[in-house]
Amino acid sequence: YCSLAIMPIGIFMNLVTAFVFTRKPFSQTTLGFLSLALSIMDICALTMAFITFFPASYQNDLQDLTLFSCKFINFFRRFFIKMTSWYQILISIDRMLCIVYNYNILKFWNKKQNLLIIMFFMMLVLGSIFTADGLYELVPIYATNSSNAIIEYKCRSTIYYAFLSDIISTTFRTIIPLIIFLITSSLISRVLIKSRRNFQDGQISRVDK
């Protein structure tokens, strides 16, 4: 119940964040544009989680209503959560390009249309990789008496697909993003350390003169 109470707050705060990044000067920068996209993705992830768990807390699980809702909710609830990591990766890459390289050289990255194309194909490729998240079925639950009558249907996945989904989630939500973060952070740190040394050497040269 604590998580359910926090989710609407998270949605509201991300709406405020999204509004801020639509205003100038944030809307004119790639960082502002990517931060806006991240806020929207966070809103989608929190909304899907709330839609999933709030009715379930009152014994009215929307996943069990139809086969479509079973597959749709399970896929997109996990999809949006994973995508938030990858939008943070885009922001990390943006900061790396800003600090390590000259933005004038990387004109492709500066155009919002190109960023939209990158985000679209990123979601398309990762969505196809995450197909195991949607491999859920409505499984009949039988009565405990000898009649074997079906009393309800529950949205469930097989052990194989659940294990596959966990492996993919761990790899593409944690391991690969962490590696990319480490690479971009190391490149940024190297440039900043080098700039600091050059600045200190310049200060020392002035003192000697």
Structural class: mainly alpha
- How many strands in all? 2
* Helical amount: over 70%
Distance between the termini: 68 Å
Give unreliable regions as ranges. none
> For the CA atoms, what is the radius of gyration?
23 Å
> Per DSSP, what share of the residues sits in E-state strands of 2 or more residues?
5-15%
What is the count of DSSP helices, taking H or I runs of 4+ residues? Answer: 6
Q: List the helices and strands in order.
A: HHHHHEEH
Main sheet properties: 2 strands, antiparallel
What's the arrangement of strands in the largest beta sheet?
1-2
Mean pLDDT: 84
Shape: elongated
Q: Concise description?
A:
The protein is mostly helical. The chain has helices at 2-21, 30-56, 67-100, 107-110, 112-129, 159-208, and strands at 137-142, 150-156. It contains six helices and two strands, in the order αααααββα.
Task: Lay out the secondary structure.
Elements lengths: L1 H20 L8 H27 L10 H34 L6 H4 L1 H18 L7 E6 L7 E7 L2 H50 L1
Antiparallel strand pairs: 1-2
Helix pairs in contact: 1-2, 2-3, 3-6
Account of the 3D structure:
- The protein has about 210 residues and is mainly α.
- It is built from 6 helices and 2 strands; from the N terminus they run H-H-H-H-H-E-E-H.
- It has a two-stranded antiparallel sheet.
- A hairpin with a 7-residue loop joins strand 1 and strand 2.
